[in-house]
């Protein structure tokens, strides 16, 4: 059971997709009315996503918090002639991301309850997407990783392109092409790394171990190219300024659930990749490039925040806030201290919860009014008190109010960056801290314009408050924001050994190089 | 023994052989033996001579012959019926089909002759191969027949 | 040479014999039956291909004929490379026959000739794959070509099909002439037409007039380059592929291409590979670098021009050019494995895509503009989702066969020689370019609204079978390629040459 649990989590959603497909083929041809069928599809999907979440919680029981290496691994030969193994497992870096994914998915399904166009196909794409995302986080074989990394593109492409807003075609293509450009160059780097390691396997753990123990030495020049290939793929995904331009388009055009997943999980594949590949595999180059990456991250923080401030569109505002927040994550990753790395990891989870919830909140009023313009709202706290409370908490958690989750992550990152030995790290930390203030400005300003004051427009006076389904979706997110804000060690303890291993991998190699 | 008068082309062949010997001594190959390409030299030369022959003949005749033009002289046929329309006419496509069918059997003959000469050495194998070959042609002929390729309407 | 030296073995050419005899049988059945026996003929064709498969399997296991030998005084070889390419050819043939039923019925075209021409073309392709001698290569090529010329113009009263057929015929003959002239010159230089004999002659240095060999090889390169539609000899491809009936386009783009690649590989990677002596070294270095340049040109021209196409058949024609380029990247590694796997995956996904196009185009190929596909996505889910999967596979997105094929080619090219690694980078950049135009029909199908007056095409049993088979094939090659790759690996030594040395 222990070795199979990861595979079960990964492929349970795919099973759900198959179930939906068969259900549709079987019942769809028997004249059952569409509305009833659609309702069944939604419940089946919800069932499978919750089941996946339940199984993923079981991993916590098996997880040994003192260990740094991968656990619950399963390794069997897959394509032996190419040296590919089916190798999955989780460690401290991936465990919470896996649970975040399975946690976000049922909420996204709830958020898309009101989708009426092609419900079956929609839900199938959601479930395939979940398998893809989980696969990225649990793969310990580079080939497998690449496979899942690409697979996530296709369902997301369809979700944006079919169920998206007005400019959905443009957004979908842009999303697809940007990501593919990065990932195909990463494929070349993977092949190159495979041959450098003696053409034995694509095993991430083995290659990382060989590099940090010095058994595999790569010349600095080659390392640089490989690092760039990997970093390009991941920085596009993060997205790091100036590669972020696909993100606002994709977010704005995607359906609500698509935005939640995109912000909640898909972007984390980039930062996760940086932590999994770039840092431990190419420590010297990571070290050399750290000031560059931190500069870009800080530009992203400030730029994202400033652009968010002037957005008239709520969804676009949240999208740009994502650029800003993920800048913090990259800043933390490239500061190479325990606090900053822990903070980066924590911030990934925070961003998933808070920004996901923000998108959900925007989606709630969009469903009622079919507009996302801030100017079209105002004073909706009066008709929707429950909604306003939730929105307020979520926004506060996103801007980093103490006792809510955002604070812990940003605080750890900034502390870590201050104590970092990377050149100019303190300067970057100071400028980054400005981003915290700016995020307070744009989020609170938006809240003020949307929620408070007099009701300006007639349509807004009769808005309905949250129904049970929206509460079921939003309350877990709010609860998580509070729990993560109050009891961070509950989460950080599990990640500590793995994060330290990454940090050590960078430090020991650099010390060795210095000698 | 045939003499020069009876067999004028021998002089050309003899000349070519001489020329070939001269060429192979002048242009030696990587090994001392005559290179295979140059063993075709007589053929090449023969081609040139053959191509030049009609041209030369025409030119010579043009210079030598008497040139008389008259209405009678310009007619296609000096005796017989006068032509009444253009000589270029469209043939029925059937002719081509018949021609192609003829070609197949022509090729069959070309194939059968060498087989007949080497029949004793090829033995049973050769016989079976030839039966298969002829069999394929028969099938093709039958097919053409059934499809109406031989009907003239 | 004595008669006994011929080394006659009928089992060595059993696949070719069976295929030809089936073609003859179909002709006879057609001649005997009063009103075109479409179903019977299709059934006979399938049975014929089944028997051919059995014969190939028998050869593979070495039950009748010792493996690795050559027969008919070196005319025919039995090795892994031949058999793997033969398998690809037979698979293409079976898929074409399955697709043909509905095509012939919808368009009311005579069935007997179609099936027998497919059989004869396949026999020619099998000959090319098994050829151990340049004469045999030529024979196979002509048999295939003549049958395919007729197939391209099979829709007799369609002007586009006539144009396609005529262009294919004229330019094809032109290419064959090049090839034949090349064969003649190589024979002149080496004194033999046997491919292994040529290799030995080059290795021993017994060459008459080395320039003759180089010119001959260049001529053959041009001839083969024409047939596989590589740039700059690709100009016939778009017109021919667009005009021919969709099914024939699918057949032409996969079967003959695979067969010509087989012959091309055998002649160049076996015949012209002796990096030890002066001429051989020059020859090998030259053809490898020329092919590398051709590969780059082919990929780039194919992909870039495909970006601007409005007609899906024309787009896939350019895509076919680009895919020949990827296969050529595998070619310059000197190993047949990546090429064979690539062509197998390409055959499966391309025939699948063309099957959908044939259905959506309706009789007479009326609707082949990409704009005709607007909104059909959810109306005909089987067809449109299949097409989407095939296009994504052609683009090389996992977990499809197209991805593994590309991966295998890139991996082999990266492994073979450091001097050719830039080729992998170029190929990857090309894959990125290609994604845009492969996504375009998907966008139109799913993201655009459906115009009024759309009627669902009726998908018959044959086409459904093709779709199921090709979809299964795409995912089989994408998820469980180990069996196929293992088989390819078995025969690795046979055609592998030491190009690495030429580039070190």
Low-confidence stretches of chain C: 494-504
Percent helix of chain C, as a range, is over 70%
Query: How many runs of DSSP E, i.e. beta strands of chain C?
Result: 2
What's the end-to-end separation of chain C, in Å? 42 Å
Record field, number of beta strands of chain A: 2
What does this structure look like?
- The complex is a heterotrimer of chains A (515), B (153) and C (504).
- Helices cover 76% and strands 3% of the residues of chain A.
- By secondary structure, chain A is mainly alpha-helical.
- Chain A has a domain at 288-510.
- In chain A, helix 10 crosses helix 13 (314-333), helix 12 (283-309) runs antiparallel to helix 13 and helix 14 (338-369) packs across helix 20 (489-514).
- The longest helix of chain A has 32 residues, at 338-369.
- With 153 residues, chain B is an all-alpha fold.
- Chain B has two domains: 9-74, no CATH class; 94-146.
- Chain C has 20 helices and two strands.
- The A-C interface holds A 78-82, 118, 121, 146-147, 150-151, 153-154, 157-158, 161-162, 168-169, 172-173, 176-177, 180-181, 184-185, 187-188, 191-192, 194-195, 199 and C 377-378, 392, 397-399, 403-404, 407-408, 410-411, 414-415, 424-425, 428, 431-432, 435-436, 439, 443, 446-448, 480-482, 485-486, 488-489.
Sequence-ordered SSE layout with sheet pairings:
The complex is a heterotrimer of chains A (515), B (153) and C (504).
Chain A: H1 5-28, H2 34-62, E1 71-79, E2 84-90, H3 92-111, H4 119-138, H5 142-151, H6 153-163, H7 168-196, H8 204-213, H9 220-237, H10 246-253, H11 256-281, H12 283-309, H13 314-333, H14 338-369, H15 385-399, H16 405-418, H17 425-451, H18 458-461, H19 468-486, H20 489-514
Antiparallel strand pairs in A: 1-2
Helix pairs in contact in A: 1-2, 1-4, 2-3, 2-4, 3-4, 3-11, 3-14, 3-19, 3-20, 4-5, 4-6, 5-7, 6-7, 7-9, 7-10, 9-11, 10-13, 11-13, 11-14, 11-20, 12-13, 12-17, 12-20, 13-14, 13-16, 13-17, 14-15, 14-16, 14-19, 14-20, 15-17, 15-19, 16-17, 16-19
Chain B: H1 9-26, H2 41-64, H3 93-117, H4 119-146
Helix pairs in contact in B: 1-2, 3-4
Chain C: H1 14-32, H2 38-61, E1 70-71, E2 76-77, H3 80-107, H4 112-130, H5 134-152, H6 159-190, H7 195-204, H8 210-227, H9 236-243, H10 246-271, H11 278-306, H12 312-331, H13 336-361, H14 381-395, H15 401-416, H16 421-447, H17 461-479, H18 482-490, H19 492-495, H20 499-503
Antiparallel strand pairs in C: 1-2
Helix pairs in contact in C: 1-2, 1-4, 2-3, 2-4, 3-4, 3-10, 3-13, 3-17, 4-5, 4-10, 5-6, 5-10, 6-8, 6-9, 7-10, 8-10, 9-10, 9-12, 10-12, 10-13, 11-12, 11-16, 12-13, 12-15, 12-16, 13-14, 13-15, 13-17, 13-18, 14-16, 15-16, 15-17
